[in-house]
Amino acid sequence: MWLLTALLLWGKLDPAKAVITLQPPWVNIFQEEHVTLRCEGPHLPGNTSTQWFLNGTAIQTLTPRHRIAAASVNDSGEYRCQTGFSVPSDPVQLEVHRDWLLLQVSSRVITEGEPLTLRCHGWNNKLVYNVLFYQNGKVLKFSIQNSEFTILKTNLSHNGIYHCSGMGKQRFESAGVPITVKELFPAPVLKASLSSPILEGQLVNLSCETKLLLERPGLRLYFSFYMGSKTLLSRNTSSEYQIQTAEREDSGLYWCEATTEDGNVIKRSPELELQVLGLQIQTRVWFHVLFYMVVGMLFLVDTIFCMIIYKELPRKKKWNLEISLDSGHEKRVNSYLQKERTYQQPLKGGQ
Ligand SMILES: *[C@@H]1O[C@H](CO)[C@@H](O)[C@H](O)[C@H]1NC(C)=O
Ligand SMILES: *[C@@H]1O[C@H](CO)[C@@H](O)[C@H](O)[C@H]1NC(C)=O
Ligand SMILES: *[C@@H]1O[C@H](CO)[C@@H](O)[C@H](O)[C@H]1NC(C)=O
Ligand SMILES: *[C@@H]1O[C@H](CO)[C@@H](O)[C@H](O)[C@H]1NC(C)=O
Ligand SMILES: *[C@@H]1O[C@H](CO)[C@@H](O)[C@H](O)[C@H]1NC(C)=O
Ligand SMILES: *[C@@H]1O[C@H](CO)[C@@H](O)[C@H](O)[C@H]1NC(C)=O
């Protein structure tokens, strides 16, 4: 005993919170109905007594069960309990009503991911059928035979005022019951230590950022990282993922997911685009630049040559004509004539 007290004083042990559960589970009931409140929490050795509080004042019950056999308006109120080695439980607000129809709920304040059960209950267990459940005035569910309706995993969209209507001797409508769904953590945001585009070979830290909004003993978040449809890291307690040496294949759309251990709350981040520029791309760029420079030079040289040739061309043409005009026949004729003359001359001379 003194050991426990000492540990408590030193803060080495966190006493758990006691928890109240109801049987049947409804936090709102009709008069004359029964309900049993049960308190769960650790006890001290040799002392199993449980303390109950209604509206902050202790009531006589000292057992782990507080039974209300026939509820009266005086049983309405805020219940808490505490065992020897626990801190007081969260409150349970019990309401005792007088009406024809009652929308019974398993809880008025819940954390997202937890279930919520609704029941459309007639006074004195009168049969009700063709039941409609409403959320904020809009029909949520229709049930021919009056059955309970459970939302297995609530989310923030389940906030609102609920009521029901159903047929008995006539159509009855219940009063509204406000339901509050508390957010456990906001959707994460994926952040990178470097902004895109990233150069090949660099180290990139990705972090999946969110924060718990509610304190829960033992509550932990698990993180998963994805690129497109590929899983990079699945359900790790670390909210970080490292790309050791970025490669061009690491380019793509990244996103992450944060979940509770039981997977009842799963939230994903918006996508983050990462582009990794390869060194190959850079060399290819240089190759292109060089290639176009060489082609450009060749073109320049070509043009200069063309211009020179174009300037030279008219002169060469004249020359060619001259050759063909004065050389060719005439020359040959002349030479023939000359030859004839030279032949003739000796002949003449010989005559
Ligand atoms: C409720 O409590 C008041 C006093 O606080 C008492 O006068 C009344 O009779 C009680 N009603 C019932 C039904 O027990
Ligand atoms: C407890 O407080 C509520 C209002 O918060 C009141 O309606 C109810 O009658 C109280 N119950 C008792 C037993 O005093
Ligand atoms: C048992 O614990 C309760 C508190 O939960 C305390 O009030 C009570 O005095 C304790 N009884 C004994 C015998 O220690
Ligand atoms: C909330 O849960 C309902 C199903 O009960 C689902 O259709 C809806 O998409 C969920 N909303 C969000 C924001 O997750
Ligand atoms: C990335 O994370 C590691 C360890 O988590 C840290 O040592 C390093 O400094 C981080 N680098 C950058 C660029 O944030
Ligand atoms: C979480 O990831 C780290 C490295 O990123 C790894 O060493 C560790 O084993 C992982 N834990 C689980 C539970 O997968």
UniProtKB/TrEMBL annotation:
SUPFAM superfamilies, sorted: Immunoglobulin
Signal peptide start and end residues: 1-18
Subcellular location: Cell membrane
SMART domains named in the record: IG (SM00409), IGc2 (SM00408)
Keyword Signal (UniProt): yes
Swiss-Prot/TrEMBL keywords: Cell membrane, Disulfide bond, Glycoprotein, IgG-binding protein, Immunity, Immunoglobulin domain, Innate immunity, Membrane, Phosphoprotein, Repeat, Signal, Transmembrane, Transmembrane helix
The protein's name in its UniProt record: High affinity immunoglobulin gamma Fc receptor I
Name of the coding gene: FCGR1A
